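Much of the work behind modern protein science is quiet bookkeeping, done one molecule at a time. Below is the pair of lines this work produces for a single protein:

***
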Amino acid sequence: MPSQPNKRLETFANPQPEREYTIRIRIPEFTCLCPKTGQPDFAELILEYVAEHLCVELKSLKLYVWSFRDEGAFHEDVTNRILSDLVSALRPRFMRLTADFNVRGGIYTTVVAEHRDPSWQPPAPVQLP
């Protein structure tokens, strides 16, 4: 049976929890519906996070993102809902979701939402000579 969209995000243990590293995931085919017109909205999502104990399993992320295809949503709301769901599932040190929507009515929209664990401090940038 082919895969079906669903809202369940699966995780796996962070293989290097003692190390500060960034995971970047590019999702170029996000689709939802305009809540006013019902027309499709298309976006590229960029997920960046510093894991604590858990990482997101990519197939479940794909099916999760697919689950928005037939839902009406304002850009600002859907971006923040996705971030909230991911934060709830992963409890990361830091997470940023950038949703870069294609043109609608001659206007491009980019929504950036972030989560930072209050106890996490980012490492100092390294300046190389």
In short: The CA atoms of residues 99 and 110 lie 6 Å apart. Residues 11-116 form a domain with the GTP Cyclohydrolase I, domain 2 fold (CATH 3.30.1130.10). The first helix runs from residue 58 to 66. The helical segments are 58-66, 75-90.
